[in-house]
Specification:
434 Repressor (Amino-terminal Domain); two-stranded antiparallel ribbon; elongated
Length: 115
Amino acid sequence: MLPERLKTLRLEAKMTQKEIAEKQGISQQAYAQFEQGKSIPNTKRLQAFSDFFNVSTDYLLGNTDIKSKTLETDLNKTLDNVRSFDGKPITDADRETIREILKRRQQEREQKEIK
């Protein structure tokens, strides 16, 4: 998933591999290997890509389809602070269900924006 996400984000930014590599302080060949899946970035480099493209590391790794760092962070903070609904405690399973529903809704919104 990471190689595809890196390439897609680079193309969306209308940048070449060389331009990304220069901004990241690595060689174009090293960056190309990340996009081709021949090499895996270490944690520090992954975070640098995340910061550069303004997406979460979870998005880069394919753990979520939500690009926005702040949306994912806000969603997690909000759900972690919810304790009850209608006078009944919310379980961890409930929180995860709500999280998945909201993520799906965000994906639908993003798809509509693309069309």
